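ping. complex inputs:
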Amino acid sequence: MNTNSQFPILNSLINYILHLADNALILAHCNSEWCGHGPVLEQDIAITNISLDLIGQARNFYQYAAELTNHSTIQPFNHSTIQPFNHSTHSTEDTLAYLRDARNFKNCLLVEQPNGDWGKTILRQFFFSNYQYLLYEKLQISSDDQLSAIAAKALKEVTYHLRWSSEWVIRLGDGTEESHNRMLNAIDELWPYTDELFIAADYENELLNNKISVDVASLKTNWQQKTELIFSEATLPMPKEIFAHKGGKQGMHTEQLGFILAGMQFLQRAYPNSEW
Amino acid sequence: MLAEKEISLVQEKQIWKILHEVLDPEVPVLSVIDLGIIRKIEIYDAVQKPPFGGLGVFITPTYSGCPAMDVIRMNIRLALIENGFKNIKIKTVLSPAWTTDWMTEEGKRKLKEYGIAPPNAQQQVCTPDVFQKEEAVQCPQCNSYRTKLVSSFGSTACKALYVCEDCREPFDYFKCH
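pong. complex structure:
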């Protein structure tokens, strides 16, 4: 039975879910590197709690993508040449997270940018949570029941992430000369990766008519207004429009993602099927 | 002889009773019922689930990434098997999303006795606006309301860190969600 002819949008749907999952997983993984290294204990706990929420969201998306993939004859991603799962093409949340190569990851470039100092990690989180909050607000009314359920649940968590990261942008921007300068530097480094959030990939466009995906371009004004509000509290300047890097959503990544995956996937690559 | 419908009602009552004994591994005074994460129980007869029938327990996670969920799922299964139930399916439902409003009054009382401030009845801080007025959370040790938020993230996803300004004790608050 060829499910693809019955559901011509299935391929796009799987890609879209993987995009949502990869965004959450990669940011969670980068944030988790702060575990035991946070500037103070409470904030170390905060950033790792945020990681945990994001991993949970990623798991919900991956489980859904795996279910759809297993009912489909297409494989929208290539597993690496190593096939540790007994030559089976059966997908699970784990095969999707641990056995795809960088070219198959569809996360936006922002989430794979290096942690840098605490200010840069905070700003990356604020940019992303600001976006994710607006995205999930819309995704919770998606015509796809499972996407809507995952988003409605996650929105409550993202509310905490956005409040926490906004407050830290203000504290650091309107803090000491040192913290202010570090935030200026973080803005310089991260701003060119924000525009990609609002440029729809082909799979997002294809799902728009069915009211499955969110029209990301429509989120941009609200995102900018919120950023402007927080930046003005933080005595930080709003950057001018500058050249926007893009491609992550189509699998064209910065060099950084390769290093992230090398660390994250090492165990399953070196010791296939290992569990703990 | 009991009619089949009555049998399933008796069984369902028994299952709810068993679930009262299954505890949250992270907050071991709360049962899964107290937490409000059991959404539904379904009993299937031999026609629906041949050859012997079976049962479905529908649970919902507190937070998307709550690591206790896998343990809870296993503990529910073990408790039911110990009591002679077979063919058990434990299904996760995400919608509607869990809220602290589903926690039982009994659960809130047990939390306080355990030293964790129970969630306030009304959700007070649920918007992303910055530097909001902090919730008035009662200290579980000395009952003072002169308490201060230290961090909205605590030892588990569901808790925030507070400190009491009267008795100076730090404590966890099961935050509104």
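The interface with chain A takes residues 61, 63-67, 93-98, 126-132, 150-155, 157, 161, 177 of chain B (CB under 8 Å).
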